[in-house]
Amino acid sequence: MGRLAWSQVRFRPARALALIVGVLVAATAFTVLTAASRTAQARTVGQVSANFQPAYDILVRPKGTRSAVESKTGTVEPDFLSGIYGGITMAQWHQIERIPGVQVAAPIAMAAYEQLQADIFVPVPAAALKGAGRQLYRISTTWVSGDGASSVTQPPSYLYVTPLRLKSGDTGLGKPASDGTGTGCVVGDGSLLAPGTNPFGTLAQSTASCWSRLNHYDVLPAGSHTEAGYYVTWNIPVLIAAIDPDAEAKLDGLDKALSSGSYLKENEGLYQKDIDGVTHLGIPVLASSDSGMDEYAQTTLQQLTAPSAMPDMDAAWASAQASAPGRTVATVHSTAQQVYGAVLRDPPTVQVILGPHAPVSAPTDTAVGTPTAGYWTVGPLDYRRTAGGALAVRQVTNPAWATWYTGDSYPVSMDNEESQYRAVTSHQPAPKSIASNEEPSTLTLIKITGVFDPAKMKVFSALSEVPLGDYQPVAATPANTASRRALHGGDLLPNQNIGGLVSQPVNLITTLSALPQLEHGQQYTGVPAADPISVIRVRVAGVTGPGALSRERINAVAQQIEQRTGLDVDVVAGSSPAPVTIDVPAGKFGQPPLTLTQDWVKEGVAVLILKAVDKTSVALYVLILVVCVLFVGNAATAAVRGRRRELGVLASLGWRRSRLFATVLGELAGIGLAAGLLAAAIAIPISAALGLDAAPLRTLLAVPVAVAVAVAAGLAPAWLAARADPVSSVRPPVLAVRRARQPGSITALAALNVTRTPGRTAIGVVSLAAGIAAVTMLTAVTFAFRGVVVGSLLGDAVAVQVRSADYVAAAATVALGVLAVADVVFLNITERAAELATIRSFGWRDTALARLVITEGAIIGVTGSLAGAAAGLGAAAWFAGQLPGRLIAIAVAAVVAGVLITSAAALLPAALLRRLPTAHLLAEE
Predict the structure, then answer these.
(1) Spatial CA neighbour of 868 closest among 843, 898, 909
(2) Is the dihedral of CA 35, 38, 40, 42 positive or negative?
(3) pLDDT tens-digit readout, 4-39
(4) Within 13 Å of residue 336, how many CA atoms lie on the same side as its CB?
(5) Which residues of 768-781 are buried (b: 16+ CB within 10 A; e: fewer)?
(6) Model confidence over 271-318: pLDDT tens digits?
(7) For FRET with 453, which of 171, 574, 866, 896 sits at 20 to 30 Å CA-CA?
(8) Cα dist. 459→46, 400, 454, 523 in Å?
(9) 191/603 Cα distance (integer angstroms)
(10) Pick from 480, 754, 780, 394: which is nearest to 615 by CA?
């Protein structure tokens, strides 16, 4: 048997060389692709481990505050604090702190939105004041947000300049002032608009003021000035929250983010301030250096026709002047951040008011601001799912708002008349309930002890980022071209509308020990004193990565928290931001419909990725082995069929079937051994060139793999050789025709020819199907990483890193499948040479014969491609847990590509038809 095997290699080198090359390619591909898979898997595990632990591992919220969307999708909203004002008691917080394994338990209590009012004085340009006569000016301010997507112009205000002495019978605000030539100025919010003509209610800040060239007397709310000018009034809502300073410092390094002043101390005493001989209490706060708002005001000063006397500046006069022609003499641009920053630097300069008449004190100022009055709270967003799978935010209707103090109504921002998506609750004292003779102990003051920069806070990985507590605004990114155009390429950020889609960040941070003063203050009636904490962020000790031990520690702590407190618990360790699409309807002030994306926190991403990587590795190993076995098996079958006459003669000479079986299998095992040694030798430089981790000992696995592949592939051919029959071996191995029929076309004849050799056709179909299945399966893997299984930033990063080697494997399997189809077509031509010669002698042209052969290859291609696509889709459904619509389209494309490639592969065997010796073959028949 050994001599026979050697004689086959020696005297039939072409077929032996083809077998060696086939096994060599299979073994090398297996070794290199296995190294690629191991390298990718190691990189993936390393990346997942590096991004497993975010700022905190567990998020604890009051019972029932998890939204329906969060529960259904396993996510956490980026502004999860919105609408949660209390719900967790101090006792529950301390109970969580005492649970074994809790390293940090950092609470945050949302208190309220206050109003920061800043009046920016702008002098009239000197050039516009030339002359000694009377002058009249109109001041118009347009508020712009959303990078220009939304804009609203408030009703104009007016400034009258007189050369006469200005007199007033009363120095109080809102009283008429006159220069003796007219009725005089009337000051107040909306007082220049007739009843029913103000579409914004108390929001319209329309005033009239007078200035004299002689005594400079001015009745603007901020007092007198020596120069003529006007005010741009900002009403910026600021969000107040309370923390435990020590826990917060450990969690996110808030104490290291200070830009000025000093950090909070939990047991720091309340401040005291004497105002008009009365002692008031104040709470310490840290102020954020960033307002978090994207808004600017464009204020235009226009000079109108000078009046002959002081006009009667009432509602009717203001209505007529609103459309009067004027000459623009100045334009002032101010932003929310500029105003907010000026407040922190020098409050008296910008006439800041926190609540009505409550100046904010700077960190270097020892004074404490005067009392606040009233506050607001907002609710969460409510979504519905659209037909396209996006979330559509629902609009709500909120009443017009105002702030009360000593019986007067003070306006809030005009932005609050924009479309609303959050229910806003106003907690205002009744008019005149906070009068000048109110008991001082019921009023609360604000004292800024320091300023922190959110950009200086501890940086965590963007791939595992979780919201820390609204210290930074939650941006909404445009998701389509129309939205990018509307927002001029920027993000949708908060503005002065507290009921808007995007919530504002926390601006002022106080301590939990200072909360009782807010809770007991009359202007804070309704604050949850019994359970003030909104959420608790927990970091677990001993967590080092996605290993089973770390996950068990986190789960054990989460279970203990839920059992002991009954609160809602979300495990966010191993999470990653996941883009969620949100549809926003058109606004009232010009904003068009928007499609936006926000990064929600997708829970359990790390574990899903690791499971997906394991599935991918198994799928790759199986696919590579199957395709290699099919390829080598097809080549071995071709070799056996080429020797069918020889094997038939040996059988007639008395060779037993076992001996024939062992001979053929021994030949293939020897070829596999030789190919395995070559594969082990060349796999190392190939792997090194590709940057893969292929250790020499691992490359030696190519030897047993090659032998195993060759033996496994040779079982069927060896079994065929053992059953060799001397009579049948001299005829082509085709099925007998039981009933004659006349094919009506070349396609019908091609289909008939394909069915005549079912075993060989099956090898070509299965080989190609494996390649198409690999492409479909690996495409499913990619989509699974990007959106189906994970749908997160970490999943996308992993997908980009590991999928290139997989597609090399898919390309290799397709190539082997196409070669197998070409080999099947070639063997068909070889064994049916006499039959084809006969057809040619009947007058068939070479082009018709070529069409026949190509059609046979196309039929095998269609069958294999359809079978492979179906198998790939089934594997994708198993892998991803669902079948995305895009994957079906990709499977269809793979079928089309498979048919085209196999048809092209059949061109070479078809070209050999011209070399058939027709006369010789006919004579032989």
Answers:
(1) 898
(2) negative
(3) 555 555 555 666 676 777 677 777 777 776 776 677
(4) 26
(5) bbbbbbbbbbbbbb
(6) 666 655 666 667 888 999 988 888 999 999 999 998 888 887 777 788
(7) 574
(8) 20, 40, 10, 38
(9) 54
(10) 780
